[in-house]
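Hi L.,

You mentioned the student needs an example of a multi-chain input paired with its predicted structure. This one should do, with 483 residues in total across all chains.
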Amino acid sequence: MTDTGCLSIIVLGASGDLAKKKTFPALFHLHCQGFIQSHNVHIFGYARSKMSDNDLRDRIHGYLTPCKGFEKTHKENLSKFLQLIKYISGPYDVDEGFVSLDKEICAYEMSKDTTGGPSRRLFYFALPPSVYPSVSKMIKSFCMTKSDVGGWTRIIVEKPFGRDLESAEELSTQIGQLFNESQIYRIDHYLGKELVQNLLVLRFGNRLFLPLWNYANIASVQIVFKEDFGTEGRGGYFDQYGIIRDILQNHLLQVLCLVAMEKPVSLNPEHIRDEKLKVLESMLPIIDEEVVIGQYEGYKDDSTIPKDSNTPTFATVVLRIHNERWDGVPFILKAGKSLNSKEAEIRVQFKDVPGDIFNASKKVGRNELVIRLQPSEAIYMKLTVKEPGLEMKTIQSELDLSYRQRYEDVVIPEAYERLILDTIHGDQQHFVRRDELKAAWEIFTPLLHKIDRKEIRSVSYKPGSRGPIEADKLAEMVGYVQT
Ligand code: NDP
Ligand code: BG6
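Structure written out for the whole complex:
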């Protein structure tokens, strides 16, 4: 394997939403920062829509915002980047399309100085999962690297990877017959977020947390995702999946693994993924009493959504890990659309101080470690301190590491940038392995099937609210204390 030679990045589904909003902008920022250079990288867009190269360039142009730190050279970078893009139109299941795609890639590779190294081909599936099997087959048949030594072909696949355990396993088997695990990059963009990546360092690089990180000291862990807008334009997609498949089964569960896992033997991707897998495999079955699902009022006004839809746009689910470290600690996963704010955070709440001496009637507050993934990345620890003044009174305060203040001039990379770069470098640490994916579906599939059969009903909540009141009650019932 090598990091030199011609690199072709092929965005399949180039006419779509993800490609426009995430994939091309991420590639543009990598270009500005010098990771994707015209002398050895070319970008191909592929989809069924009939378009010229310029049509695609015009389509994505408005989304290519200036890369921080490169504002002055934005125009120049933009024009160089757009010149790297070529568009090819073709179907996803017919040989001809992929034969001509291969021809274009080969022509580009031939035009480059082949002494520079072997051919590297990265296929980004910005496509609905229904076409993954046929596209994989086409790539395998016609578009693999032609370099025997040192070249590679890798694919990045998006979520949702299946709808439940059975469909995900079927998809995994179909793709697994064509590509090795080392060629498949299952993207979960939460694993590319700065503060998610910091979890490993925070937990295993600080003596402070080592003795405290367990059931004896931690009362609960909450992992929260909130959006202050609804399904907007994605109603058709969303109604088939719902918030548990869209957010909990992947993004929040991956974060949970990093919070809960044991120290890996090393930073080797397999060592890290081995530890995450153990967490998933130690999970107890979800019980109905520890689930609240909701749907915001007005969700079904979208004409693409059936009037009797039970699809949750909100869910709180309590997960419990049956192992020596976490016995009895509730991991409360909460996600919702159309809520009162847009944020994602982890709240590790510690138990009360035993034998409180400060104020018997008004207990001192609990310690809470909050890791805010977005917006305004921050890590802060809620502490009880003496209120300044003559009296001996306690007050809650914070040790605050706000990234904007502390790292004023540092540009935090977008998750997609980081993950595409990892794929180019062949680093699978921040991607989901097949066995992890299977274990994640095993946890949620029984619950999802009950919801699909309407055995568990979504309660309604007001757009712009905190979500259903039942969810707050559940968190309180399992031990979360509002600090
Ligand atoms: P789109 O619905 O925009 O589809 C992408 C492209 O695929 C379309 O432009 C279309 O291209 C082609 N396509 C659409 N439907 C079909 C179909 N039924 N059969 C064959 N081709 C089809 O999807 P997104 O770009 O929104 O998402 C792509 C992938 O990324 C999906 O797996 C999605 O779940 C995932 N994802 C999307 C996010 C987002 O914000 N959009 C966020 C996270 C993940 P053409 O007709 O020109 O061939
Ligand atoms: C995607 C979901 O995976 O993540 C979307 O499909 C959601 O529904 C998005 O809006 C949120 O990502 P971020 O990075 O904005 O929190």
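You could point out the following to them. The pocket of 6-O-phosphono-beta-D-glucopyranose (ligand 2) is lined by residues 189, 227, 246, 344 (CB under 6 Å). The longest strand covers residues 218-226.

Best wishes,
N.
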